Amino acid sequence: MNAFTRPVGRAEWRADRWGMLRCLAVRDETPSTKTFVLAPDDGARIVYEPGQFMTFRADFGGEAVERCYTLASSAASERSVEITVKRKPGGRFSNHLHDALVRGAGIEAFGPAGRFGPASVEADRYVLLSAGSGVTPMLSVVRTAADLGIDLDASFIHVARHPREIIAAVDLVPLMRRLPNLRVATIATSAPKRWRGTVGRLQAQLLADLVPDIGTRAILCCGPEGFMADMKAAVMAAGVAEENYAEESFDFGAMEEALATGAGPTRRITFAKSGRSFDCPDGLTILQAAKAAGIPIASSCAKGMCGTCKCLMTAGNVAMAHNGGIRDREVARGFILPCSSRPNTDIVLDR
Ligand code: FES
After folding, report:
1. 145: Cβ–Cβ under 8 A, 6 or more apart, which residues?
2. Reduced to 3 states, what is the DSSP secondary structure of residue 180?
3. What pLDDT was estimated at residue 254?
4. Which of 76, 152, 169, 319 could form a disulfide with 147 if both were Cys (CB 3.0 to 4.6 A apart)?
5. Residue 79 to residue 233: CA distance in whole angstroms
6. Dihedral of alpha carbons 22, 28, 34, 37, sign
7. Please, what is the end-to-end C-alpha distance for the chain in angstroms?
8. Which of 66, 337, 351 to mutate to test the pocket of ligand 1 (most atoms within 8 A of CB)?
């Protein structure tokens, strides 16, 4: 079997447990951004929908650190996935990927998971709005549509700080050729004089100029929290219905919110296997209380999307408000997401 041979009887990659992906290739996208092509050694098929993400885990001196990255690749391939990662100053995980995830290296991965993407916001016509690394799910949408022959009607508007930071810029023209109803606009907040694209901020008026029928379209938006807040306000003002708007962000800095406790009863959380226990004050999730008590629970998105923190609850009950990181049949079997669960009683977890 060589690299072009499709392995016979390929199993499906298990999205509900950690596994090892091998780096097949690395390519530079911008001076600070690389794309990593990853695949399982056994040729298992990785089945996902455009807009989904995977969680990656690396060891930092005995501390396991996890991060989510949206898949940027075409979901039609199933043989490999691609993540596109910007190196950030002080970004422990992104720097580690840039330095250590070379061709042939392995990395632990969990998922794919998540509900963001055209599969969850059904529409005939879309606007794909992204800023910075938020372009990755949009690339997966358009690459998948092109590969599957889907006649995608979409306005794809991407904002970068500078033209040299536009990810996959060279891929967009060929994609437009393959998708006749795809229109692409790239906007740079600053640019040299010779650049022919739009320079400035993406505001409501520019959005209306670029997509005059925006009120009739479904919107997928991904980028920093401030960008998404501005875009949501603009598209709602333009008449987009709430159910036709979806957004996604993995801005971990924004997740370090202050813990606000309530006046209700404190519940006791016990780990049956390790025997460890801690208090969960009213208002906190089990994950927040565990962190406050210094007890590690593997987690990543902290938003109920990735499924990393999933565990079996053997006693008690919780109020759980998740974002797709757990399936109904898992909930029926007693699994919960500690990041999205507030205890109604004392709780015992199977860990
Ligand atoms: S940490 Fe992602 S679902 Fe709990």
Report:
1. 50, 151, 152, 179, 182
2. coil
3. 42
4. 76
5. 39
6. negative
7. 42
8. 337
